[in-house]
Amino acid sequence: MFPGAVAEREAADYVIVGAPLDVSTTFQPGTRFGPDRLRQFARTFDDYDPHTDAHFSSLDVHDHGDVHAWDNAAEYLDYLEGVVTDVEWDDAVPLLLGGEHTVTIAAIRALDPDVFVCLDAHLDLREAYDGNELSHSTVAQHALDVADEAIILGARTGSEDEWQRAREDDVTIVPPEDVDGWIPPESLAREDVYLSVDIDAADPAYAPGTGTLEPFGVTSREMRDVVRTIAPHSVGFDVVEVNDRDDGQAATLGAKLLREFVFAHATQ
Amino acid sequence: MFPGAVAEREAADYVIVGAPLDVSTTFQPGTRFGPDRLRQFARTFDDYDPHTDAHFSSLDVHDHGDVHAWDNAAEYLDYLEGVVTDVEWDDAVPLLLGGEHTVTIAAIRALDPDVFVCLDAHLDLREAYDGNELSHSTVAQHALDVADEAIILGARTGSEDEWQRAREDDVTIVPPEDVDGWIPPESLAREDVYLSVDIDAADPAYAPGTGTLEPFGVTSREMRDVVRTIAPHSVGFDVVEVNDRDDGQAATLGAKLLREFVFAHATQ
Amino acid sequence: MFPGAVAEREAADYVIVGAPLDVSTTFQPGTRFGPDRLRQFARTFDDYDPHTDAHFSSLDVHDHGDVHAWDNAAEYLDYLEGVVTDVEWDDAVPLLLGGEHTVTIAAIRALDPDVFVCLDAHLDLREAYDGNELSHSTVAQHALDVADEAIILGARTGSEDEWQRAREDDVTIVPPEDVDGWIPPESLAREDVYLSVDIDAADPAYAPGTGTLEPFGVTSREMRDVVRTIAPHSVGFDVVEVNDRDDGQAATLGAKLLREFVFAHATQ
Amino acid sequence: MFPGAVAEREAADYVIVGAPLDVSTTFQPGTRFGPDRLRQFARTFDDYDPHTDAHFSSLDVHDHGDVHAWDNAAEYLDYLEGVVTDVEWDDAVPLLLGGEHTVTIAAIRALDPDVFVCLDAHLDLREAYDGNELSHSTVAQHALDVADEAIILGARTGSEDEWQRAREDDVTIVPPEDVDGWIPPESLAREDVYLSVDIDAADPAYAPGTGTLEPFGVTSREMRDVVRTIAPHSVGFDVVEVNDRDDGQAATLGAKLLREFVFAHATQ
Amino acid sequence: MFPGAVAEREAADYVIVGAPLDVSTTFQPGTRFGPDRLRQFARTFDDYDPHTDAHFSSLDVHDHGDVHAWDNAAEYLDYLEGVVTDVEWDDAVPLLLGGEHTVTIAAIRALDPDVFVCLDAHLDLREAYDGNELSHSTVAQHALDVADEAIILGARTGSEDEWQRAREDDVTIVPPEDVDGWIPPESLAREDVYLSVDIDAADPAYAPGTGTLEPFGVTSREMRDVVRTIAPHSVGFDVVEVNDRDDGQAATLGAKLLREFVFAHATQ
Amino acid sequence: MFPGAVAEREAADYVIVGAPLDVSTTFQPGTRFGPDRLRQFARTFDDYDPHTDAHFSSLDVHDHGDVHAWDNAAEYLDYLEGVVTDVEWDDAVPLLLGGEHTVTIAAIRALDPDVFVCLDAHLDLREAYDGNELSHSTVAQHALDVADEAIILGARTGSEDEWQRAREDDVTIVPPEDVDGWIPPESLAREDVYLSVDIDAADPAYAPGTGTLEPFGVTSREMRDVVRTIAPHSVGFDVVEVNDRDDGQAATLGAKLLREFVFAHATQ
Ligand SMILES: [Mn+2]
Ligand SMILES: [Mn+2]
Ligand SMILES: [Mn+2]
Ligand SMILES: [Mn+2]
Ligand SMILES: [Mn+2]
Ligand SMILES: [Mn+2]
Ligand SMILES: [Mn+2]
Ligand SMILES: [Mn+2]
Ligand SMILES: [Mn+2]
Ligand SMILES: [Mn+2]
Ligand SMILES: [Mn+2]
Ligand SMILES: [Mn+2]
């Protein structure tokens, strides 16, 4: 159980769902251990948050446990979409623990947001990768099947086609250098937003335990500020691409950002 | 390049093929780094082998490099089968570096052996795993589509169905306790054999860097003796399921067993 | 949850209790992560056991979760004793996951066995260590406050006083060299036995992830055979001193021995 | 021996004392290896410091070695207080190498400073933790039994009670965002200050090897500047909560900050 | 092969040469694994670079492989100098992958630049270290035997003699605090520059996998900006002192900086 | 200090000398950390030895500390030879902690034994390696410059020339399979013997933390029995080639064997 997620399912305002999918990771695998790592390194945090004057354990967070993953990503996403839909029908906000970024597709399909906001080193705007249309590198593309707009913060790499796609009107790229002090468009306040945190948005110094490390990234505080800014407008959240190949940095940061999301969302 | 594999392809009697497939690993992923690890830890070995009075670098071994893997196992196995077939047509013996055990299926299909001999903790006699008919746990079952007989040494775990399947006439199980001093059936000398080494046959003390650790296994010397016994009758060989999650034990053992195979095969 | 421990508490014949106490570890700390590691590395095992022709998930094992530890060992042992007593009153066999060896004291006090059988590199017969009467090195001494007899298998080190204590009639030491093929006294069949597995009984090759490594130990198969022999006569079991400072060897072995206990006990 | 700490005890102006206490660590244990790690990673530094134009080995630093820790924190602190008192009576400045933060209590009691300045992610203002009044999370509270004032830099988490306590007049909190360029109150120049560096003040990117990682922390340069500013007014110093669970980052930073303290203090 | 270095030698504009020398490393050895690590962690990068609108695989980079190192540094440098000279004669730019910093000496001797620009925590201006005139800590000194001028960015430590040497006219030191926004002297545009990246210039948060960690260093972005600025004027490049003792941070950063060099040089 | 080595130098019967030379290691470096690791993992042992009924701390062992190593192996060996000679002149038995195997040469030269007994995976009978006559792989050859005879137990690899050299009368090879129960020639009792333990004699399962792992080795108990057999006739001892690249297995085994040597020698 995620520390402090003590609410019963019926009473929950937030439902944590572990989604340890790990089939399309390109370089270093291990995101299947992401949900476990995130829960483990969250033990270190105080229950109380001075920024919002709230206790995490009082915010009615429930931990659903993990949705056991198998090899067929398409089937898995279908099933996971159902789990997330159930959460939404219960009027709770789903909080996914990845697993590879692909799991975000299930949440987007279930929640049907207007805007997809994402912290990521990568554009994830591919049509497919090595022929796989459900690769982690297609997430933003899939999100745009559902959402009207995508905002990708911290993005610094992609294929030439992805960068071309990113120049279209429905995509906004905020490079790492511009994340500090970034202000979202005013319209965002009137939209349903889904917020996805690919931990590799961070510079590898802050989150080495991820599949594809990309230098020149965002700092942990910049990620926190984005989460605090976007959370109040969000209908769902995830933190993905954390693996077990570091000394806890990635999991600690990811778990903390999940808590920041809940504090900011609950006390808006 | 595998150390000592200095032959040109045309002149080669043995061709090493890296097959870093890593999609169906059940527990700990990382077999995609297997070929690299095996080559790296093989640097530590002397070229000369006192047991056979031969130099590895004189045995005409060529390293083909890796066959880059992608997510679709079925397509990958088709492609890999072609690569192995090419090796056979050149009258060379293919030596695969896994990658997950699934890659063995490609080699079996290409080489069409009479007998499948395997060192493995697992029976690998499933029809499918989580719906996946190309899971690493189906290898022996696939082998029996081609071969007349399977001999699995060191096997100590499987599903109830697998154990039932193992009781049929075409399967011989040699439990870990009986591997020491095991003598193959005489008929083996008249057959084409394929020898597959799943490194998890070893007790985890000898090879912790693998996906599914299973205690009470075989010692490194027992594995060596099986390789020396079977190699002279073999038309192909692989070592699979080595990952990068230990301090070099699994890769060192795997690379050494590959060399034992070549020495025993070449000097028979 | 320990994989396969799917029974409800009321229906359980076996109850797993995590006891992550980690205050008196002498050298390398980390046993607080023992229960997590044991559960994690148990995922790798097949449900079915060919030795007993049984499925683990059919043997009515329940996982109680962890009894959160705090700094005061005396108070913690009192509390834990209550938890174990509850299990016994429900006619179930408690299976503790340490945590340091000290947690065994709570189980012994709750279960009041006649004989204490222990796999351990250490005698654990101290009166106190650095003034601490509840050090992990006093466990066998505490056990003898309750039990009439202690049998310590694999023991190879201790203080001079401990070795002198070990020469008394109520203690039997089976050195590592004699564990293979060891036959328990016939009387054992008529007694209530408690079986405790300190993972450091194993040679460090088999279980490097423990607090105090002691060479020249027992092999994994020898430990298995002891567990299979003693389990049918046992009223309780634990596996302790596993930490997270290796590549999974210690946890894999410990989790497997717990399963061996349940299979052997349930199918006697 | 800490590299460069070549002075004899009698001639020493600074005395390093290892204090490897490791009993109340909340999450990841291992601070018992802190003194060893700090000494080991200090080998990498040049003797000469360009900032102060001084050689560390000329500043009369002596390494007392470690005060072997045992389980009873209260007794240990008493003993350690004696060791630190001896250092003070010899007119030398004590430099503690933790061990958990609790060891600071002994130094404070021995040195009786007016002001307690601390770099820490945590307020450490608890009365007790899990009933333990000598937990590492009570250090600042204990310091205020002796000192008139506490200044905690980099603090970003604590219980609600701790934050309430922090609002009283005798406590100053400098959040991580305000540490850069922080100027101490003028009055500090006229006071006896004790400076304690809990390495978790740093962002986990800079010091992952610590018990409780807390994101959004201070940079290494900001910590250095605080040490340089406070050192000239200090009667004692410590660096605590370094463990062996990273690749040397925490120990390297901690050892460097100790040297910065000595250079700044000696050349004021 | 370095990912994307697909050019044949004859057609190459850039030639990567691995130089895994690892004999004089002062503290933590392992730079012999540097070339392998750099190639491995470079797999994670997209081929396309949005900053220069170029594909790495189109820039005619060839990977020569490694020049196997042996114990005699003097002989090795002679041999390596020949290899680099061959590259220059082929009108290609050599890109060395260290190995210890000493290998830079061979490149400097082969290329005879006017200016030596170096990112390094250390001055490397010693005459010798422990009597060794070919220690990694003498590199800048050797460079000045050839070049007229040395600019060392990020330097923060050295012996008193080195700092004195650094005050002479032919050496410019840019301390870490001044690297951000640093503008090279105009004259640089008219000179042949050699650019050497000792990965320990970075703060240990960004590159823990190196021999001698030195806190208070440069950020990854600052290093990138230096590389982009200097590359257009450069006749050669290296990245050195990366080892295998971290979770990929150092190798990822080093490999990325090599790519930044090629992109900036090729598209100037 | 090696735990229990509490004697003053003048009163010592045994003198431990750390010799962290690490220049010619062929594959994985890190033996420079060997003495530290051996001392650290020796903390786990009880002072008392039941086999000889003796306390280690009563056997007058002194720890001289380390002889700081530098790059020039020839000079270092000269210096180290002097240190060992001093020990012998004080009528004490030197116990070296390597460092690479090369350091044994210094001890042999100082002690002038009749017989060189060595546990090693390698013959170490080269004249030179990559031109280096002081490589770790030449140790037995150098020993035979001084001693009349060499006995190498556990040897299983070497060059063809080394195996040919090994066939001469003054060399006895005991392959790993024959170490169990090996009985030394009677004549040994009348000779001065030097006993050298290269930790790679052990199978990698027992000692993965070494430079060149070689499968099919000796067990820890077999090594112990050799040490106990040879120690009474020995004038010097070393344990070498331990590095820091495992989870403590190699250092624990090495430190234990040193203690076995002292117990067996002192109580003969
Ligand atoms: Mn992504
Ligand atoms: Mn990404
Ligand atoms: Mn298999
Ligand atoms: Mn298997
Ligand atoms: Mn015990
Ligand atoms: Mn024990
Ligand atoms: Mn603190
Ligand atoms: Mn703290
Ligand atoms: Mn340098
Ligand atoms: Mn440097
Ligand atoms: Mn040797
Ligand atoms: Mn050797």
UniProtKB/TrEMBL annotation, chains A, B, C, D, E, F:
Its EC number is 3.5.3.11. Its cofactor is Mn(2+). It is an enzyme of class 3 (hydrolase). Signal peptide: none annotated. Keywords: Hydrolase, Manganese, Metal-binding. GO terms for biological process: putrescine biosynthetic process from arginine, via agmatine. Binds 2 manganese ions per subunit. One of its GO terms (molecular function) is metal ion binding. This is Agmatinase. It comes from Natranaeroarchaeum aerophilus. The lineage of its organism: Archaea, Methanobacteriati, Methanobacteriota, Stenosarchaea group, Halobacteria.
